[in-house]
Write a structure and sequence with these properties.
Layout (H helix, E strand, L loop, with lengths): L66 E5 L17 H9 L2 E2 L5 E3 L1 E4 L8 E3 L10 E2 L1 E5 L7 E8 L11 H20 L9 E8 L1 H6 L4 E8 L15
Antiparallel strand pairs: 1-6, 1-9, 2-3, 4-7, 5-7, 5-8, 8-10, 9-10
Length: 240
């Protein structure tokens, strides 16, 4: 125990401001464990809380390029850079092995489909189902059009921007895509968009990352059921 510097009597300076014997002032000792005794975080034990561990920000995460998808005339649905979907055993195998095509290019066996390698006439499902939450998408489930499906590709168009041009923004690219896709609906279905009550359109369009990293300018025009149900056959020429 420390002693009073004036009278030499034992004192406890952890709580005494003056010597109880001679009244001399005492230097108060810090409470808790001396600073030379530190915990695992390198700070005096009991003096303060351990520092918060750093949390990685979104800027620390690598960017993955995909496409954005939106429905026209309905709620926005955006899909993504690799989407993990809970599927049955056979569907999981199909998802990772890829859709199979015949000599004409038509999908004959369901499987994973790269959104950067889609073709007019391809039928597919939204990742996670037709009412799943919005994300970006890089891969979808391609299916034969004779099987129930959510979407059918009816046109592929390229934005006129040159390589190196800045990304116009989500709304600008989406609006341009819809303006180009709408008139092409007639030639595929056989009637104008305004005259077909049960069908709507959706588009896949470039993200900022795919626009810059891959010079992606492609917009995918697709047809879907306006009420969110599934199509059970191809709609090509249906109204002709």
């Amino acid at each position: 125990m420390p002693k009073c510097p004036n009278c030499g009597r034992n004192v406890d300076s952890s709580y005494q401001a003056q010597c109880s014997h001679c009244g001399a002032g005492l230097a108060m000792a810090p409470t808790g464990v001396p600073s030379t005794h530190t915990d695992l975080f390198g700070i005096p034990q009991g003096v303060s809380d351990p520092p918060a561990m750093p949390v990685p920000s979104s800027q620390d995460q690598p960017n993955k390029a995909g496409k954005v998808a939106k429905r026209f005339g309905a709620a926005t649905v955006v899909r993504v850079a690799i989407v993990l979907v809970v599927l049955g055993g056979g569907a999981v195998w199909n998802w990772f092995t890829g859709a199979r095509r015949d000599d004409s290019g038509a999908i004959t066996d369901a499987g994973g489909l790269d959104v950067f390698r889609m073709a007019v006439g391809d039928c597919l499902d939204w990742p996670g189902g037709s009412d799943s939450e919005a994300t970006e998408v890089e891969r979808v489930e391609g299916k034969p059009c004779s099987e129930p499906h959510d979407l059918e590709v009816y046109a592929l168009i390229d934005h006129p921007a040159s390589a190196g041009d800045p990304y116009p923004g989500d709304d600008a690219v989406y609006t341009w895509g819809v303006e180009q896709c709408l008139p092409l609906f007639t030639g595929y279905v056989g009637a104008s968009y305004e005259n077909v009550a049960d069908l709507d359109i959706s588009v896949f369009y470039p993200t900022t990352q795919s626009w810059k990293q891959q010079a992606d300018r492609e917009v995918v025009c697709m047809i879907n059921d306006i009420d969110g149900g599934q199509l059970v056959r191809s709609v090509k020429g249906r109204e002709a």
